Amino acid sequence: VDLLVVCDINHRLSASSINRTEFPSQYMGRWYFLAAAAPADSQALETFKPMDNTAFWVQESTENEKLVFRANVRVKDGSCVPRKWIYLLSGDSTELRTEGHPDRVTELFSSKCTQCVILKETENSISRLLLYSRSPQLEREFVEDFKEKAFCEGYKETLEIPQKLEYCPLDT
Ligand code: GYM
Q1: pLDDT digit string (tens) for 120-158?
Q2: Which of 64, 94, 133, 152 has its CA 20 to 30 A from that of 24?
Q3: Is residue 78 part of a domain?
Q4: What is the extent of the structural domain holding 105?
């Protein structure tokens, strides 16, 4: 963020508009990864730098309290790298755990963009914010709002996902 941001209450991360009654059904289906933020010099964004774009597909598992997250990452060299994670739901909470990553906690926050969600991933005191949208294109004000919120929460390094190449096919 290279402009002056006066941080105020509107920049705080909030989960207040997350519909807990519908949870998690409102998050099923297709998502696009648009931006990420991390503390300066944390290296937490390095993993995303070779990426051109990533589409996600979220579905209920046949097992209770589990969700299947599939992704197909378009790498800048043109290749497609499919990925899959199992997320574990915990009772009434909107907090998620990742199978195979016992120290990773994922929290959900709302975005100014109503068709978006912000995820906060924390693992061993390192955390980062991730912005996902139902649409691959987002108005500038929503990307800027994400960056301002991130900046004001101490995540001073941000990365926008370039999306210069086509999306890789997503098997559903
Ligand atoms: O390829 C790197 C990737 O972005 C790393 O991030 C993750 O592995 C987190 C999974 C992202 C899931 C995106 C789906 C959109 C959010 C839906 C929220 C679901 C809550 C039940």
Answers
A1: 999 998 999 999 999 999 999 999 999 999 999 999 999
A2: 152
A3: yes
A4: 23-160
Give yes or no for residue 58 CB within 6 A of ligand 1.
yes
Other CB atoms within 10 Å distance of the CB of residue 21: 6
What ipTM was estimated for this complex?
Answer: 0.91
For 75-133, what is each residue's pLDDT tens digit? 999 999 999 999 999 888 999 999 999 999 999 999 999 999 999 999 998 999 999 99
Residue 165 lies inside a defined structural domain of this protein: no
Tokens matching residue 53: 């774009």
- pLDDT greater than 70 at residue 1: no
Mutate to test the pocket of ligand 1, among 33, 54, 68, 123 (most ligand atoms within 8 A of CB): 33
From the CA of 4, how far away is ligand 1's center (Å)? 30
Q: Which of 19, 26, 31 to mutate to test the pocket of ligand 1 (most atoms within 8 A of CB)?
A: 31
